[in-house]
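ESCALATION

Customer reports they have been waiting on this structure for their group meeting. Please prioritize. Original submission:
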Amino acid sequence: MTFTAHDWTGAEIPALGMGCWAIGGPFTADGRAVGWGPSDDPTSRDAISAAYDAGLRVFDTAQAYGAGHSETLLGEVLGDRPEARIVTKVGIGIDPDQRRLTGFVTDPAALRAGLEASLKRLRRERIDLVLVHPNEFEIDEARPVFDWLADEHDAGRVSAYGWSTDFADKATAFADQGGFRAVELAVNLLFRADRLLSRLNEAQLVPLIRSPLAMGLLAGRIGGDTRIGPDDVRASDSNWMSYFKDGRPNRDHLERIDRVRALLTTGGRTMAQGAIGWLWALEPRAIPVPGMRTPAQVADLAGALEMGPLPRDVFDEIEALMARDPEGPDRPR
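Update from on-call: job pushed to the front of the queue and completed.
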């Protein structure tokens, strides 16, 4: 049986999506690498096809990912498959020729031009869900972006919209707008985001979960000797990056993961499947969108749908062992 959740339209779908940041390939912001290093387009197309064939229906991208390249690949594979729900993000300007980000965008005319370019790359007349990308926007700064999204929703070019944010007050600031249906936030075994998840449940907004594998720490392939190359965002010195430091995995996180490794793999699960199963045990409404670069990664993660949530006793035992840091004030993650 496939574990399911309800999307922002209320439809029941497999409760797992494909994150498409890494398939965008290299791109920069202010001269710093903000992609996941080199990518291979034929392999990326195969991964998208494999995800769709495995039943996944949510594909999470952004104008920023590869400065449009991730959207282009999704359009090439899924442009004629309306059952695929495309989630993209706006609010960051791009230079596709130079593969770089150009700064935040709030001007409606620029946003409209960016949406037209996304529709062309995605080979769609309508985008299923559009999220405001910058965590950093203040509520008043974001207001013109959401007013523009409301207009695009009324015009039929955007089916629904929301915010990609880790701030509880921002997450529901525009929830009274009829098209505001979902919030994307970081949640994983290392950070539960209890305050924000509670707010989303109260408002009945769909929680899309980014970083469900803690940027790879929970996939089972990263250890203390792992070194991330300088062309990978995980080697950045960004203040939101807590999973890695200078391209090396956070050792405190690795120790916590080691404590519960055997529990995560209960029932024959892989580490990645266990991490997704933990998330569903925490919040059954969640739709995690882990990054997937290859058909093999797709097969591993899609297998979580058959396993479902971790058993409650296993989840409780993991919680007793984790010894997480306090949640602290909201911040980008």
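Sent to customer with the following note: The two ends are 33 Å apart (CA to CA).
Escalation resolved.
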